């Protein structure tokens, strides 16, 4: 029965080591201090476990310094873990904000490109219509139909006015 309990205590401390938080990302100095703290905590738990075994056999040990060291080491580890969590959350939030800003800039650029294309299409359409009206006006002059020529001029002015209004709308 004693062998079973000692094996259980050793596997429990190994399991606690595996479930310990991952070391923070960073330089070698951060990893070294993290592993030293973890090793100290695991070694202190093994010593505490050995003291508990001695207590099962009737030997009393009133030294509680090992338990104090364990609690100090684990509280320091918890503070480091919470700082790491806060830092990683801050970095994540910052990266999400930067991505959002890039997407907004991309949308604005696409919107500008679409408006520019719309304006160019409007200008091309107006030019084509003006060219057609100029040809009709020339034909009416050759035939001597001045009434039709004046109506064509009105249509041309209407086209130019419509072009100006739509360009103003696009530029807003």
Overview of this protein structure:
InterPro entries: CEP350/CC187. GO terms for molecular function: microtubule binding. Keywords: Coiled coil. Helix content is about 90%, strand content about 0%. It is an all-alpha fold. The chain has helices at about 1-20, 30-55, 65-145, 145-170. Helix 1 (about 1-20) runs antiparallel to helix 2 (about 30-55), helix 2 runs antiparallel to helix 3 and helix 3 packs antiparallel against helix 4 (about 145-170).
Major sheet: none
What is the number of helices? Answer: 4
The count of strands amounts to 0
Distance between the termini: 85 Å
Structural class by sheet pairing and helices: mainly alpha
> How much helicity do the residues have?
over 70%
Cα-atom radius of gyration: 41 Å
Give the helices and strands as they follow along the chain: HHHH
Keywords: Coiled coil
InterPro entries: CEP350/CC187
GO molecular function: microtubule binding
């Amino acid at each position: 029965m004693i062998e079973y309990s000692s094996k259980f205590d050793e596997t429990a401390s190994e399991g606690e080591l595996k479930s310990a938080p991952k070391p923070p990302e960073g330089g070698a100095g951060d990893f070294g201090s993290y592993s030293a703290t973890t090793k100290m905590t695991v070694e202190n738990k093994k010593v505490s476990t050995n003291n508990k075994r001695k207590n099962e056999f009737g030997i009393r040990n009133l030294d509680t310094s090992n338990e104090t060291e364990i609690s100090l080491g684990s509280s320091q580890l918890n503070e480091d873990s919470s700082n790491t969590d806060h830092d990683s959350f801050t970095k994540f939030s910052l990266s999400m904000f930067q991505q959002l800003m890039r997407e907004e800039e991309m949308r604005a650029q696409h919107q500008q490109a679409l408006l520019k294309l719309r304006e160019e299409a409007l200008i091309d359409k107006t030019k084509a219509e003006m060219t057609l009206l100029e040809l009709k006006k020339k034909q009416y002059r050759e035939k001597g139909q001045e009434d039709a020529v004046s109506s064509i001029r009105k249509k041309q002015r209407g086209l130019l006015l419509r072009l100006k209004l739509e360009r103003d709308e696009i530029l807003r």
